[in-house]
Amino acid sequence: MVETRLPSISGTESLLLDLLEDRERFGLELVERSGGAVKRGSVYVLLARMEAKGFVESWQEERAPGAIGLPRRMYRATAYGLKVRDAYRLLQEALALKPVEAQ
Amino acid sequence: MTFVDTVMAVSDRFLREQTFELVVAPAIADLQYDQHTSGGRHQLRNSAAVVSALAWGLYEEVTNDTSVLTFLMLVLIPACYYTGLILACAPDGAKLFSTTEQRLAISALIAALSFGPAIACYWPERRPRRESADRS
Questions:
Q1: Within its chain, how far is the Cα of B51 from the centroid?
Q2: Do B19 and A48 touch (CB under 8 A)?
Q3: How many CA atoms lie less than 13 Å away from B39 in the CB half-sphere?
Q4: Which residues contact B87 (CB under 8 A, 6 or more apart)?
Q5: Cβ count near B123 (within 10 Å)
Q6: Tens digit of pLDDT for each residue in A34-89?
Q7: A97 by DSSP, 3-state: which?
Q8: First vs last C-alpha separation in chain A
Q9: Cβ pairs A/B, distance under 8 A
């Protein structure tokens, strides 16, 4: 029998997908909107891991001519990421039901 | 050499291009963006974020690279050598390890002597990346 590995998603990843659901955002925007759940020092590691899992996609911002510094990176949730998040939410809700309620 | 230059130099040596692009470069971009938009109001926090991103990047490199075992073996060999050397050649050999401070000092010395050359010589060569933007 072929084993298929299910994707895993953490609470923080789920939160980031919530923030990225409606529009693309910069990393710092995500830090500010997460209400302290995501820190500046770890946001890009989280996003890189999510990108490796296929939950988000990213690209460098368009630069104005003469702009100084490295271009910032923008992030957007993928359909797959949102699907995994929704599936885990359903699973959590189902498992949270008490046995009597589930009958 | 500025802070960003130093981070870039370390990244050039130790990080793969993908790790740099996804983890360290965005943190540097935030730091530079903040400097140009708000005059560096969050300079300290952004600098700490860059250092943290670099540390995470190095951690990712170490944990994802299959050659880590080879690297650890290369560290272990000089570590055993220097430990044996200290025990054999130092006057009163094992007495050197009698107090916690002495044990810590000798362990730090052995770690520095073992990790330093292994990191400098063995760490897989990283392809130099293109200059994507002004670093300052």
A1: 11
A2: yes
A3: 0
A4: B93, B94, B96
A5: 15
A6: 988 998 888 999 999 999 999 999 999 887 777 778 889 999 999 999 999 999 99
A7: coil
A8: 32
A9: 77
Q: What does the block give as tokens for A30? A: 């995500």
- What would be the CATH architecture of the domain defined by A11-62+69-102? Orthogonal Bundle (1.10)
pLDDT in tens, B67-111: 667 777 888 888 888 888 887 777 666 666 677 887 888 888 888
Tell me if chain A has a CB within 8 Å of the CB of B30: yes
At A26, is the pLDDT very low, low, confident or very high (cuts 50, 70, 90)? Answer: very high
Spans of all domains in chain B: 3-64, 68-122
pLDDT at position B134 is 46
B33 touches chain A (CB under 8 A): yes
CA distance A23 to B134: 29
Two structure tokens written together for B81 = 């050598």
Distance CA(B23)–CA(A47), nearest Å, equals 8
Mean pLDDT of B122-132: 60
Question: Is A10 near chain B, with CB under 8 Å?
Answer: no
For residue B78, the model assigns a pLDDT of 87
Give the gap in angstroms from C-alpha A89 to the nearest C-alpha of chain B. 28
User: What residues does each domain of chain A span?
Assistant: 11-62+69-102
Q: For residue B21, give the nearest of B51, B48, B60, B57 by alpha carbon.
A: B57
What sign does the dihedral B90-B91-B96-B102 (CA atoms) show?
A: negative
- State how far residue B111 is from chain A, nearest Cα, in angstroms: 27
Give yes or no for a contact between A55 and A77, defined as CB atoms under 8 angstroms apart: yes
